[in-house]
């Protein structure tokens, strides 16, 4: 797990942690093949089937309501969590594929920062280099110094990619180390767009070089945010965090409390393999509501819901539960195999925020 804020005995006993443990992946080691232990999903809210039955017979389960919006999509709310909105299947398959590509190619590009910055400095062309089987050459000295002086001396290191057949000739040079681009891609955990977030200080560092959020993402976020915005007001996307989840990854219960104005929503887009999202209350002691997040779903958290603990305890990577066959079909028809390969075992979440 990464990005956990608090740990300890207290947390282990909270209702939120109990739910995390319930849904987290555990393996059955008693069999030859390592298989995930079955988990009871009967209490997980499924907005896909809620949408289906609502579209057929205008029926909604207890506690769920539908809100009016200009979007050509149904927007659902939870009566017990004001300020929370769920838009099932908000993005078309084409849009999902487009944002998966951007998340892998352009979003991790400098000046945007990723979890790799602190160790390797800014990295260019990660996805293309992984596709080409390349290796990143890095200076061991820079990596060691980095432990003492986080990031400062690695900002200027240029990315040097080497083809596999170039490595042999460089074996004698012990000051240089290599790591494969595919390992780095697998270990990509987050990238930040727009105003850059400083995880160590848990705030936005406006002094860091940054680009504005790409126009097309900004437009999408504004359109999606509309149901959670006061009449006539427009959402201003200023920052986004892109989370990349692989096998066994989870996002521990947390609050996103670093933005100034909590009345503005966080617009959160799910891509790739299905996940379970836990939406708690204002205390970790409040039992969270579990729901499925599928590729193309959009969640908004605004107002009171901004004060609710939330997290992602489980990603489903197996064919039956991942529910990505629509992405597979589209990626298979183009030169999409490298993306397909990645997304078959991954989930990506893009969450867009107005900071000020
Ligand atoms: O992955 C998700 O759906 C939620 C991400 C999230 O809560 C965050 O990045 O703050
Ligand atoms: Fe969050």
TrEMBL record:
Q: Where is the signal peptide?
A: none
- Example GO biological process term? oxidative RNA demethylation
Q: Which family does it belong to?
A: Belongs to the alkB family.
> Which protein is depicted?
Fe2OG dioxygenase domain-containing protein
Q: Does the keyword Metal-binding apply?
A: yes
Q: Which GO terms describe its cellular component?
A: cytoplasm
Summarize where Fe cation binds, as residue positions: 254, 256, 310
Q: Which residues form the Fe2OG dioxygenase domain?
A: 236-356
Q: Which keywords belong to this entry?
A: Dioxygenase, Iron, Metal-binding, Oxidoreductase
What organism does the record attribute this protein to? Genlisea aurea
Q: Name one GO molecular function term.
A: broad specificity oxidative DNA demethylase activity
């Amino acid at each position: 797990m990464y990005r956990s804020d608090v740990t300890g005995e207290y947390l282990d006993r909270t209702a939120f942690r109990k739910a995390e443990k319930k849904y987290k992946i555990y393996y059955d080691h008693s069999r030859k093949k390592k298989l995930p232990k079955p988990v009871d999903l009967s209490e997980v809210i499924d907005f896909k089937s809620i949408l289906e039955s609502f579209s057929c017979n205008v029926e909604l389960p207890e506690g769920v309501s539908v809100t009016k919006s200009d979007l050509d999509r149904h927007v659902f709310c939870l009566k017990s969590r004001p300020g929370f909105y769920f838009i099932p299947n908000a993005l078309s398959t084409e849009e999902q594929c487009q944002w998966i590509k951007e998340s892998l190619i352009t979003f991790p590009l400098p000046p945007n920062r990723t979890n790799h910055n602190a160790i390797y400095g800014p990295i260019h062309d990660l996805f293309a280099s992984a596709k080409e089987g390349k290796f990143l050459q890095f200076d061991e000295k820079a990596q060691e110094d980095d432990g003492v002086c986080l990031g400062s001396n690695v900002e200027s290191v240029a990315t040097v990619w080497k083809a596999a057949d170039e490595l042999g000739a460089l074996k004698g040079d012990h000051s240089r180390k290599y790591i494969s681009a595919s390992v780095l891609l697998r270990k990509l955990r987050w990238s930040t767009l727009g105003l850059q977030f400083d995880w160590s200080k848990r705030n936005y560092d406006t002094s860091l070089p940054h680009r504005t959020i790409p126009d097309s993402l900004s437009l999408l976020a504004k359109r999606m945010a509309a149901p959670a915005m006061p009449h006539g007001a427009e959402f201003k996307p200023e920052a986004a965090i892109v989370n990349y989840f692989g096998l066994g990854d989870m996002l521990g219960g947390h609050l996103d409390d670093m933005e100034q104005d909590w009345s503005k929503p966080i617009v959160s887009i799910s891509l790739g393999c299905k996940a379970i999202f836990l939406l708690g209350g204002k205390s970790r002691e409040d039992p969270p509501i579990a729901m499925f997040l599928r590729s193309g779903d959009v969640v908004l958290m605004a107002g009171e819901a901004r004060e609710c603990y939330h997290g992602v305890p489980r990603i489903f990577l197996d064919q039956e539960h991942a529910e990505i066959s629509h992405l597979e079909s589209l990626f298979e028809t183009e030169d999409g195999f490298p993306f397909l390969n990645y997304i078959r075992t991954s989930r990506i979440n893009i969450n867009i925020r107005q900071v000020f």
